[in-house]
Every structure is written in C-alpha cells, then in structure tokens.
TrEMBL record:
The keyword NAD applies. One of its GO terms (molecular function) is diacetyl reductase ((S)-acetoin forming) (NAD+) activity. This is diacetyl reductase [(S)-acetoin forming]. The active site is at 253 (proton acceptor). Keywords: NAD, Oxidoreductase. PANTHER family: OXIDOREDUCTASE, SHORT-CHAIN DEHYDROGENASE/REDUCTASE FAMILY (AFU_ORTHOLOGUE AFUA_5G02870) (PTHR43639), SHORT-CHAIN DEHYDROGENASE_REDUCTASE FAMILY PROTEIN (PTHR43639:SF1).
Length: 357
C-alpha cells in the first residue's frame, strides 16, 4: 500500500512516573519522530528525534506539529507550543486507513438524556473521552458515572448553553479535565409548541438564545481552544427536519433550526482555514422526552390524544418507523470521526426519509 502523509494524533493517559511508553510499532520506525515517550513531571522538557520527555495527565501529540512547533530542549505545558521556529527532520507517514488516534475529546451539550446521551455513549465506543454538558447536572452526572463505570472516560458539566460566559467556562474546564477538545456537538435545544398567535417576545428570546445563540457561543469557545492547542477540530450542530421544511405549530423551533443550517454553512467557510469543519445533523421524529412533549402539545391544541399527536409526525416516514436516538448517534459519530474529514458546511438529514434534498 502506498504510504500517505497525514496528520494523526496520540493521546497518553496518566501513567506511573518514569514509565516508558513505546509506540513505534504503529508507524514504520524510519518515519517515526519520537519512538519513546516518558512521563516524569508536569511539563515537556526535552525533545529530540527519538525521545520526548513529557509530564502531565494528558499529552496531545501531533508529530507533524512537533516538526514545526517545538524547539529542542525548551519547556512547554500540555503540549501547547507554537511558533518556535525550529524544524526537526520529521516526516510522519502511515498507510492510508491505519489509525493510531485514540481518546480524542468531544464536548456534547444536552447529553444528560435523549439524542445527546446516545451520541455520548456512541462516541465513547469510538474511543472518545466525553464531556456530558447539560442544564440538568444531576442527570448529567448519572450519565457520566455510568460511562465511567463501563470503562469509558466521561466528566459531567453543568451548563446553560444560552449563557455565553458559562458555556465558554464549561468548555475550558472540560478541556482541562479531559486533556483536550477536538469535537464540539451543539446538541442542546428546546422545542415548545408555538402557534403563531401565542408567541411572545420572551418566548422568542428564550428559544432563539437556547437554540441559536448557544451554537455561536459554543463555536467561539471551541475554536479559540482548538487554535490555542494548535490543532483543528469539528463543530457539529443539531438542526432538525423541521429546519429543512417548516413544521406546523413550531414557528419558533422550526425557524431556529433553519438558522442552524445557515450558521453552520457560514462557520464552515470562516473556519476552514483553521482546519475546522462545521456540519449539522437533522433528525426526524426521535423517541426522546422532547418529541413526546411536542406530540402531547400538538394533540392538546387539536383536542386529540397523544397517539394522534405522534401520528401527525410519523405518518410520512419513508422507512416506516420512528427514529431511535441511536439512529441519530450513528450519523453524528460519522461526522465526529475522521471518515468525514472532507465534509463541511453540510446538514446530514437523519429522518428515515421524511425530507428529500
Ligand atoms: N427528538 C426529536 O425528534 C428531534 C428531532 C429533530 C431535532 N432534534 C434536536 O436534537 C437535539 C436533542 O433533542 P432531544 O430530543 O434529545 O431533546 P431532549 O429534550 O430529550 O434533551 C435535551 C437535553 O438538553 C438539555 N438542555 C435544554 N436546555 C438546555 C440549556 N439551556 N443548556 C444546557 N442544556 C440544556 C436538557 O436538560 C436535556 O437533557 C435538540 O437540539 C433537538 O432540537 C430532536
């Protein structure tokens, strides 16, 4: 197989002091910039073409960045070092398809239940460490605990995504605690039923702040972090099939999800130069507490029962069934992983064939 040059990463977990970790087996030794890593303290102190001495809980290692960013013998914290100017003779190559990356970090909002929880659990299976970020800290903690009990790596964070400063702080805290940030999933959202004549200014502000402004706050914080760490990243935003076609009774919700598709396209164009992709996913009718609430409200407004409310949403699904949260998580896992590296600015519709575009 023809070797190809590509960026790849390796993240080390906390190991006993002075343990030597060898990882040259993944990469042909002649191409390998640092075959042995040794943890001894809180900082990187020395580096040469064969040995790197590092300190700290998590060290994010991108060999191609070593080449251009690290100076021999200097001290760096947490692998963040840029513009050092010395180029070492490193040429990282690996066969196409080979992957030595593990434990990238994903921050997922609204992941204490529903689609967000399913995404978090799926990404853990894919090797991510995950930040379970939610307004409901108690539930977020339960999800994080259960992931950790099952051998994954997760931490819970209380966040109101409509609060710019709080959201930014939570992303920084998660990066400190989990070692890095590679993927932000702006999943949290609210979906009150809003027939036109019922909409108030307060409702407008609330829904637009939680569903739209939050994505901008999250993107600002995540892109600053990606850049500070000297690597790219992925932004993934929750849209909806209701953001592809206007849905009755959902004036505010539907329009916020149209906005998500638009801001995702703008982000893709603005951030590509920094190695950051931005995509969205548009679920259909997913069996989560949110959908049950919407169906209930639609039914109440029409004077019908919940089953009727749900049927108004489910009758046009080509695949003939409602969506499980895992159906959406599978698609988001694709957007979060490296198989989607050449995709940006897109909205992936995951609705069993409700909308065709
Ligand atoms: N369920 C569906 O059928 C469906 C369809 C299309 C799109 N979506 C979208 O998918 C995303 C997840 O939906 P879901 O069905 O899992 O919702 P859900 O209501 O079941 O879960 C949403 C989670 O977000 C949290 N949250 C709400 N407001 C928050 C805030 N201000 N800050 C932080 N967290 C907050 C909630 O506590 C909850 O844990 C939403 O953006 C939603 O619009 C859902």
């Amino acid at each position: 197989m023809q070797p190809m040059v590509r960026s790849w990463s390796l993240q080390l977990q906390l190991r006993p002091a002075n343990e030597i970790i060898t990882w040259s087996s993944y990469v042909p030794p002649s191409y390998c910039c640092a075959s042995t890593l040794k943890r001894t303290n809180q900082y990187i102190t020395t580096f040469d073409a064969h040995k790197l001495t590092i300190f700290g809980e998590n060290f994010y290692c991108k060999p191609r960045e070593f080449a251009s960013h690290f100076t021999y013998g200097k001290t760096y914290t947490n692998g963040v070092a840029r513009h050092c100017g010395v180029r070492l003779p490193i040429d990282v190559k690996q066969p196409e398809g080979a992957c030595i990356m593990n434990k990238e970090v994903a921050f997922i909002t609204g992941s204490a239940q529903g689609i967000g929880e399913a995404i978090a659990r799926r990404l853990v299976k894919d090797g991510f460490a995950v930040a379970i970020a939610d307004l409901n800290f108690e539930l977020a903690t339960k999800v994080a605990d259960s992931i950790n009990d099952d051998g994954g790596k997760a931490a819970a964070f209380k966040v109101d995504v409509s609060d710019r400063g709080g959201f930014q702080q939570a992303i920084e805290d998660a990066s400190d605690s989990l070692g890095d940030l590679n993927v932000l999933i702006n999943n949290a959202g609210i979906a009150p039923t809003t027939p036109i004549d019922t909409i108030t200014a307060e409702m407008f502000d609330k829904v637009y702040h939680v569903n739209v402004a939050s994505c901008i706050w999250g993107m600002q914080a995540a892109t600053a972090l990606f850049k500070g760490k000297g690597h790219g990243g992925k932004i993934i935003n929750a849209a909806s099939q209701a953001g592809v076609v206007g849905n009755a009774n959902l004036m505010l919700y539907s329009s916020t999800k149209f906005a998500i598709r638009g801001l995702t396209q703008v982000a893709a164009k603005d951030l590509a130069k920094d190695g950051i992709t931005a995509n969205a996913y548009a679920p259909g009718i997913v069996k989560t507490p949110m959908m049950m609430d919407i169906a209930h409200q639609v039914a109440v407004n029409a004077g019908k029962d919940d089953e009727w409310g749900m049927s108004t949403f489910s009758k046009d699904i080509t695949l003939g069934r409602l969506s499980e949260a895992s159906d959406v998580a599978n698609a988001v896992a694709f957007l979060a992983g490296h198989n989607s590296d050449y995709i940006t600015g897109q909205t992936l519709i995951v609705d069993g064939g409700m909308q065709f575009q």
